[in-house]
Amino acid sequence: MKAIIVGSFNPIQRGHLDIIKRAALVFKDVDVYILENAAKTNVGGKTNIDASVRVGLVEKCLKFNGLSKIKVKSSVEALVDIHARNAPCVVVKGLRNTIDLEHEKSQFVVNFGLTQSEKKQDKTDRFETVFFIAKPDYAHISSSAVRVLVGLDKCIKNFVCESIVGEVKALYKK
């Protein structure tokens, strides 16, 4: 079965990378979609970096970690539409804490409801989400925290893939 992993990856951090690695061990094919998230266009005073730049960062990080076969794409589509185009597949999400769980549960209910209201009766179109629990080493990492640390000129090597540290600092430093 195919898995799709979606997020803003603004920027990709070690927790994201771990979820992608683990999904690649479980699923035959994994695609990563970088979505524009209207709610995150100006988080922490930092404007979203263009999706094409974030695609490049994710690709560089995956290649550095031996995962270059994973396809990375950007999209402005709704998740339910990406899912329908890739069906049969599952959506993979990482959970750091109960706040993430509540948010992702709500997202699932909305997306599942959309597939039901569009009368998608074919079982291959059924919307499903698989959750991976963050490992303790990564549960405290968020892209927002990385952006804040860059703004404070702090070391981020323990938070992002070492192959992109310099680029992340240059992109998010204002």
Provide an overview of this structure.
The chain has 174 residues and is α/β, with parallel strands linked by helices. It has a single domain, classed as Rossmann fold, CATH 3.40.50.620. 41% of the residues lie in helices and 20% in strands. It is built from six helices and seven strands; from the N terminus they run βαβββαβαβαβαα. The chain has helices spanning 14-26, 51-64, 79-86, 98-117, 143-151, 165-172; strands at 2-7, 29-35, 42-43, 46-47, 71-75, 89-95, 129-133. Strands 5-2-1-6-7 form a five-stranded parallel β-sheet, with helices on both faces. Helix 1 (14-26) links the parallel strand 1 (2-7) and strand 2 (29-35). The mean pLDDT is 91.
CATH architecture: 3-Layer(aba) Sandwich
Radius of gyration: 16 Å
Query: Would you identify the CATH H-level superfamily?
Result: HUPs
Q: What number is the mean pLDDT?
A: 91
- List unreliable stretches of 5+ residues: none
Largest sheet: 5 strands, parallel
Strand order, sheet with most strands:
5-2-1-6-7
Which structural class do you get from the secondary structure elements? alpha/beta
How helical, in percent, are the residues?
40-55%
Kindly estimate the percentage of residues that lie in beta strands according to DSSP. 15-25%
> What order do the helices and strands follow?
EHEEEHEHEHEHH
Number of strands: 7
**Gross geometry:** globular
The name CATH uses for the topology is: Rossmann fold
Q: What number of structural domains do the residues give?
A: 1
Could you tell me how far the N terminus lies from the C terminus, measured between alpha carbons in angstroms?
42 Å
CATH class: Alpha Beta
